[in-house]
UniProtKB/TrEMBL annotation:
<dbReference type="Pfam" id="PF00121">
    <property type="entry name" value="TIM"/>
</dbReference>
<comment type="similarity">
    <text>Belongs to the triosephosphate isomerase family.</text>
</comment>
<dbReference type="InterPro" id="IPR013785">
    <property type="entry name" value="Aldolase_TIM"/>
</dbReference>
<dbReference type="InterPro" id="IPR020861">
    <property type="entry name" value="Triosephosphate_isomerase_AS"/>
</dbReference>
<protein>
    <recommendedName>
        <fullName>Triose-phosphate isomerase</fullName>
    </recommendedName>
</protein>
<dbReference type="InterPro" id="IPR022896">
    <property type="entry name" value="TrioseP_Isoase_bac/euk"/>
</dbReference>
<dbReference type="GO" id="GO:0005829">
    <property type="term" value="C:cytosol"/>
</dbReference>
<dbReference type="GO" id="GO:0046166">
    <property type="term" value="P:glyceraldehyde-3-phosphate biosynthetic process"/>
</dbReference>
<dbReference type="GO" id="GO:0006096">
    <property type="term" value="P:glycolytic process"/>
</dbReference>
<comment type="subunit">
    <text>Homodimer.</text>
</comment>
<dbReference type="GO" id="GO:0019563">
    <property type="term" value="P:glycerol catabolic process"/>
</dbReference>
<dbReference type="InterPro" id="IPR035990">
    <property type="entry name" value="TIM_sf"/>
</dbReference>
<comment type="pathway">
    <text>Carbohydrate biosynthesis.</text>
</comment>
<dbReference type="InterPro" id="IPR000652">
    <property type="entry name" value="Triosephosphate_isomerase"/>
</dbReference>
<dbReference type="GO" id="GO:0004807">
    <property type="term" value="F:triose-phosphate isomerase activity"/>
</dbReference>
<keyword id="KW-0413">Isomerase</keyword>
<dbReference type="GO" id="GO:0006094">
    <property type="term" value="P:gluconeogenesis"/>
</dbReference>
Amino acid sequence: MGRKFIVGGNWKCNGTVDDVKKIVTILNEAEVPSGEIVEVVVSPPYVHLTLVKGLLRSDFQVAAQNCWVRKGGAFTGEVSAEMLVNLGIPWVILGHSERRALLGESNEFVGDKVAYALSVGLKVIACVGETLEQRESGSTAAVVAAQTKAIAEKVSSWENIVLAYEPVWAIGTGKVASPEQAQEVHFELRKWLQENCGADVAASTRIIYGGSVSGANCQVLGTQPDVDGFLVGGASLKPEFIDIIKAAN
């Protein structure tokens, strides 16, 4: 059986209660491919997690946008993986480029976070991606390999990991990696997994693309053989998110 398409919606730091209710209503009323064809995960801010979980249709899942690197305690402002499990939140996004760039999260720190989240039963969307400077210098493959290696060194199983390739230069900029550029990096990531984690891991791990994904470009991106879905930012707050989910077909 092939890798099931997965579409994640990262709402980032957006949304009042009323905004969130409107988005959920659009999602609940949408006609999309069945859960056998596409897995849908939306990621609201922490303060809206339980609201969204309570209102959202049962075939869509909820993710947190981050969690702390170890068990809770004297870590003001952080949210532990155990808290997410206690709330019944099944997924978490880790290693997003905004956290790497703005908050200084290193490859090793992200690897530790992924391993800990998995250890308490969460499923993880782990983000990797290069900056514009790194792409222009020809180091894209080396950068995403190093980010992936930091995760691989800390985990024993990839069963509950989705790898999200998000070129930093394409996030929120309107610039999109061409289908060929996206496929090239996804292919290199899968090749790295095969050489370092085994053929089974490479064949089964879903690698999704993120970076200005829209209703206009999702179809052609989704046809690439190593693109197993999307992690969507701004468009996940709009009705066009439904069109992106439908790209699974």
